[in-house]
Amino acid sequence: MPVSHDLYQDLHYPREIVQQRRQHDKDLDRLLDDYTDIDNQVLAAEAISAGNFEDDDLRRLKERRLSIKFMIERQLERKA
What we know:
By secondary structure, the chain is mostly helical. It has helices at residues 7-11, 15-24, 26-49, 56-78. Helix 2 (15-24) packs across helix 3 (26-49) and helix 3 packs antiparallel against helix 4 (56-78).
């Protein structure tokens, strides 16, 4: 069964801090929304494929999710 990644654990920032910063940073807010959207797409794609194979579309979704996570990290570091 596909499971969503814990973004906050990956970021090494408490959820409360990220949510507080998101209220004052429109770019961070947009990136977090983008991450949630792409993560949901990955979960749906994984559920459909049932883990039988890693097709190109799923791989691209995962790469996009990782890219957005890196952008979130940079945005958090920039405003730290």
